[in-house]
Design a protein that fits this description.
The protein contains 8 helices and 12 strands. With about 250 residues, it is an alpha/beta fold. It has a 6-stranded mixed sheet with strand order 3-2-1-11-12-9. A 6-stranded mixed sheet has the order 4-5-6-10-7-8, with helices on one face. Bound molecules: zinc ion.
Length: about 250
């Protein structure tokens, strides 16, 4: 099975459109979404309409912004800008999209026998996996060989190897326009494909990945999109300007 992997779209329609154009000639059977469809950006209805149009070909988990923007949780633990954006999103969602957002499932969920998906970590959808310690907790909470996660908006890989009872954990940032990773059957992996709509690794290009689960191979891509258009849309919506500015730098 081949999966198109998307994470952290954050209501950025232009980035999503660029990714869709980029994958047009690529083959995939299903779309996998790792959470945070909305929040920060100014196009929540378009993004949710598109996700919903995928029907049963879509496998997904909700993100922390999805939960708050759907009114299922308070925004009090968000910073000022995220809170303002969540309030704006909740009041601008069309009824059908609010209901859809409220129905997003909580992760982790199994994609197939040895592959799981989650938003933050397999321990907690709000937890971040930045360090080897964070990764250890996530590996310990699951048994799958591959766990796909989002939330940090940083394309990254954690690899757990066991040799004669001795565990070693490797961390790698995944940079570049195109990257191919072959998964070694003896190792376990936590992989973040990066964010479609708000990259934070100082590279403003949209991120996505394709997983070939039979070949145990992952392709990661970066795609240029017109972030200046997205920024203008954010400013016109009256959202905090910093949410538009950061897209120009990938910060
Ligand atoms: Zn996010």
């Amino acid at each position: 099975m081949r999966y198109l992997i998307l994470s952290d779209i954050h209501a950025n329609w232009e980035a999503l459109q660029a990714v869709r154009a980029h994958v047009r000639r690529k083959r995939f059977d299903r779309v996998v979404f790792l959470g945070d469809a909305v929040g920060y950006g100014a196009s929540p209805n378009r993004v949710l309409d598109w996700l919903r149009s995928l029907g049963s070909t879509l496998a997904m988990v909700r993100g922390n912004h999805d939960r708050v923007c759907a009114g299922l949780d308070s925004a009090e633990h968000f910073n000022r800008y995220a809170r303002q954006a969540a309030e704006w999103t909740l009041s601008n969602l069309e009824e059908r999209n609010l209901e859809y957002l409220q129905s997003f499932p909580t992760g982790p969920i199994d994609l197939e026998k040895d592959v799981a998906i989650c938003h933050g970590s397999s321990v907690d959808e709000d937890a971040y996996i930045f360090s080897a310690y964070d990764a250890q907790l996530a590996f310990a909470a699951t048994s799958q060989q591959l766990i796909l996660f989002g939330h940090t908006h940083v394309p990254s890989l954690f690899m757990l190897r066991e040799d004669n009872g001795k565990q070693t954990l490797r961390v790698r940032l995944l940079t570049g326009r195109r990257l191919v990773l072959d998964l070694d059957p003896g190792n376990r992996y936590l992989i973040n494909p990066g964010s479609v709509g708000q990259p934070r690794d100082r590279d403003p290009r949209a991120c996505y990945a394709i997983l070939d689960s039979e070949q145990r191979r992952i392709y990661l891509y970066r795609v240029i999109y017109r972030a200046s258009v997205t920024r203008r849309r954010i400013l016109n919506a009256g959202l905090p300007p910093v949410l538009g500015d950061r897209l120009l730098y990938g910060a």
